[in-house]
Amino acid sequence: MKASLADLNAFIAVARARGFRDAARAGGISASSLSEAVRRLEAQLGVRLLHRTTRSVAPTEAGERLLERLAPALGEVEAALDVVNGFRDRPAGMLRLNVPVSAARLVLPAVVPGFLAAFPDIGLEIVAEDNFVDILASSCDAGIRYDERLEQDMIAVPIGPRRQRFATAAAPHYLARHGQPEHPRDLLGHACLRSRFTSGTMPSWDFERDGEVVRIEPRGPLIVRAGAATDLSIEAAIAGVGVICLFEDWLRPHFDKGSLVPVLEDWWPHFSGPYLYYPGRKLVPAPLRAFIDFIKGAVW
Hints:
The protein is α/β, with parallel strands linked by helices. It has 3 domains: about 5-70, Orthogonal Bundle (Arc Repressor Mutant, subunit A); about 90-160 and about 275-295, 3-Layer(aba) Sandwich (D-Maltodextrin-Binding Protein, domain 2); about 165-270, 3-Layer(aba) Sandwich (D-Maltodextrin-Binding Protein, domain 2). The protein contains 10 helices and 15 strands. The protein has helices at about 5-15, 20-25, 30-45, 60-80, 100-105, 110-120, 170-180, 230-240, 250-255, 285-295, and strands spanning about 50, 55-60, 95-100, 120-130, 140-145, 155-160, 165-170, 190-195, 205-210, 210-215, 220-225, 245, 260-265, 270, 275-280. The strands form 4 sheets. Strands 7, 8, 11, 12, 13 and 14 form a 6-stranded mixed sheet that branches. A hairpin with a 4-residue loop joins strand 1 (about 50) and strand 2 (about 55-60). The chain is elongated. The model has no long low-confidence stretch (mean pLDDT about 85).
């Protein structure tokens, strides 16, 4: 039984996008073409691959099993075809990266413009989300994460500043009303603006000074989804709602303007910078190889 690669790719696109219209927009083709390709594939296989309703599209059990097997296989086909990129004067193709929102905001702006200018035949797609994902299953070539425990077959390459800090801050008028904390535990008596990951966990606030480590679980009037709604938390802090804890680089512009001031700065903990990671057992596509070489030559 043979099926065309085009029909198989159409099925994968629709299954991942959970809809014909979203898959069509992402792929630059018509939804009707995708629908016809999936119907043709289902007729050829003699089994329904997608549940279709007026509101959603989801893989059937057979579709899920097919998707699990197809994704890595077609990835290998793409890698094989990418070999010819090495014979071009300049690498070409699409590079897809899965990154946390913080990296999209704090790291990539210093990289992306120069990279795209140096490699005009490469297109770059950035998927920004803070939950840890399987980059192969998500059809991404590589990811960026902070100090993650990576699989043994992953290769990690430093990207961005190698030393960063978490900072706590508040608006001057908030501190005028409630006082300046002298010790991290003083924050337990303050309104603190928390964040929650998509997994449901809320990170603790960690502090360190002269070998003393303090970890607290503060409370406050506002909890936001980490990454996605961080700017709302910052605006709330500026408005005097409470104390915020975030990447120092994210808060730095507000320190410079005076809309926020540092809190407990001598307790701010350091952590290692982010890493670009990708599978070590897979042939590295030419666009990713170009990106790796580019960031290795960057000065942070």
